[in-house]
């Protein structure tokens, strides 16, 4: 399963988005703007953005936050595969794939 991540505009430092970078996906059911919000966090940077949930921001062929929300647990991980400006496409990793990533 692939998702679109929209990173915050980073005016004050290096962009944390890197190919093959691992992001933690964290559901935010109490988010006042979107009850299906999924935040994206990276080690050493904290929250870097959100999984896109609008037809205007979701890249064709990827899942929106609303479609992915029920398919992941409260915390999950994804691996960045493509980056363009502050938008990236990431692959949601299964438990087996995460175990393999940790070994590597």
Round the mean pLDDT to the nearest integer and report it.
Answer: 89
Q: What composes the largest sheet?
A: 6 strands, antiparallel, barrel
| Total count of strands | 6
Which structural class matches the secondary elements? mainly beta
Strand order of the largest sheet: 1-4-3-2-5-6
Description:
With 104 residues, the chain is mainly beta. It has helices spanning 65-68, 95-103, and strands spanning 2-7, 22-28, 37-42, 46-51, 75-84, 87-92. A six-stranded antiparallel barrel has the order 1-4-3-2-5-6. A hairpin with a 2-residue loop joins strand 5 (75-84) and strand 6 (87-92). The longest helix has 9 residues, at 95-103. It is globular and about 35 Å long.
Quick structural gist:
The protein contains 2 helices and 6 strands, in the order E-E-E-E-H-E-E-H.
List the main descriptive attributes of the protein structure presented here.
104 residues, mainly beta, six-stranded antiparallel beta barrel, 2 helices, 12% helix
Break the fold down into its secondary structure elements and pairings.
Elements: E1 2-7, E2 22-28, E3 37-42, E4 46-51, H1 65-68, E5 75-84, E6 87-92, H2 95-103
């Amino acid at each position: 399963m692939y998702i679109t991540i929209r990173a915050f505009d980073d005016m004050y430092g290096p962009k944390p988005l890197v190919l093959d970078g691992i992001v933690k996906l964290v559901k935010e059911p109490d988010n006042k703007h979107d009850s299906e919000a999924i935040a994206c966090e990276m080690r050493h940077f904290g929250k870097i953005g959100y999984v896109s949930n609008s037809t205007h921001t979701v890249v064709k062929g990827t899942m929106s936050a609303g479609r992915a929300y029920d398919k992941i647990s409260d915390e999950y991980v994804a691996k960045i595969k493509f980056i363009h400006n502050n938008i990236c496409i990431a692959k949601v990793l299964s438990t087996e794939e995460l175990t393999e990533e940790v070994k590597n």
